[in-house]
Amino acid sequence: MACGDPGARFHLVILDPRLTATAPRQVAGRSGIDALSHAVESFVCTRRNPSSAGWALDAWRRIGAALEPSLSTTVPEEVRGQMLLGAHLAGAAIEASMLGAAHAAANPLSARYRIPHGEAVGLVLPAVVRFNAPAAEALYRELDAGGSEAVARKTETLRDAAGLGNRLRAFGVDEGSLGDLARLATEEWTGGFNPRPVSEAGFLEIYEAAF
Fold first, then answer.
1. CB 3.0-4.6 Å disulfide test: which of 35, 111, 152, 179 passes with 129?
2. Whole-model pTM?
């Protein structure tokens, strides 16, 4: 999907949890939250379909259970395996569908403030879930019976457990730049697949909630 060339598509996937054992905790945390965001965004995007929804739901459950314990240096191989499989399924879900406003909002943060991608997505994803609630509450309830608020809080809990930042201001983002960031976010193509149409004003609302 991202490359737009079938020649870049894999023929074989080897998911070996031994290969993740030495990943730095910060890198594993950022990557884990990014994988979680793939599950959440693909599950509710306008390009969702039975295949992507099934993979995303499975990924959400696996990552939700395995992310925090997988960050320990003494975690059983099985737990890291569940995290790795969840991340793979979330990636399969976005390849079969699309993403949404969280990735559109994250990219300008990485470009302008050098915030690593997984951390940038984690900063805005809870705000995006709450923003999307009027249009996607029923779908969020399929992820968690508590709906959008429960999904947003679960994301925040896992983000905190991974030791990631929770406010834009902590990364040097100044309030006066939020309008420019919102304008840049509207130029990101993934925002066009968000379940609730998101304009520049909508992105500003998201950034302000995460500020």
1. 152
2. 0.94
Count of CB atoms situated within 10 Å of the CB of 44: 28
Task: Break the chain down into helix, strand, coil percent, rounded to 5.
Answer: 75, 0, 25
Q: Is the dihedral of CA 39, 44, 46, 47 positive or negative?
A: positive
> Residues 34, 122, 158, CA angle at the centre, nearest 5°?
85
Rounded CA-CA distance 60/39 in Å is 6
d(CA 210, CA 15): 34
Phi, psi of 124 (to 5 degrees): -105, -15
The answer to whether the CB of 86 falls within 8 A of the CB of 59 is: yes
d(CA 205, CA 191): 14
Q: Which domains does the chain have, with CATH numbers?
A: 24-210 (1.20.1090.10)
> Splitting the chain (211 residues) into consecutive groups of 10 residues, what average pLDDT does each group show?
75 92 94 98 98 98 97 91 98 96 98 97 98 98 98 98 96 97 97 98 98 98
Give dist(CA 162, CA 25) in Å, integer. Answer: 8
